[in-house]
Design a protein that fits this description.
two-stranded antiparallel ribbon, alpha+beta, 3 helices, Thiol Ester Dehydrase, Chain A, 7 strands
């Protein structure tokens, strides 16, 4: 399968850092979210489209591996890539220094489809997601 991904640039602001001017660990999840939203926009299945298709997609698992710290004023690139989408949505993330390409952080989220009408977890990803991913890979 061809890799489907989206990358966003982030400038680490002062309000995201601690007294050592290192980005607070919890903000990395926000950076993942920015890349995830760019990826969902790219395949035209963002959160509004998910809701319109009758599903919500809660994050049920999150992993973060901190390799090197992001620092105040640093420009980083955050990439979200589709790893799996047939039964659940698994996205891999990579945060790198924009200038050097040095790897700073990697992570992964798992999201599952839940029917808005019934509240039931779907054991297979709805056609709405599968069609958007496959259409983006092929087209």
């Amino acid at each position: 399968m061809a890799t489907l991904s989206a990358t966003v640039a982030v400038h680490i602001p002062f309000h995201d850092v601690d007294m050592m001017e290192v980005a607070w660990h919890g903000h990395y999840v926000k950076y993942f979210e920015l890349a995830r939203c760019a990826l969902l926009d790219k395949i035209r299945y963002n959160y509004k489209a998910m809701r319109a298709s009758g599903y919500v997609w809660p994050v049920v698992d999150l992993k973060v591996r901190y390799v090197r710290p992001a620092r105040f004023g640093q420009d980083i690139c955050v990439t979200a890539s589709v790893k799996e989408y047939e039964n659940r949505l698994v996205l891999d993330y990579l945060i790198c220094d924009q200038a050097s390409g040095e790897k700073l952080t990697k992570g992964q989220t798992i999201q599952v489809a839940v029917s808005i009408d019934t509240g039931e977890l779907q054991l297979v990803s709805p056609a709405a997601l599968r069609e958007k991913v496959e259409g983006s890979i092929c087209g």
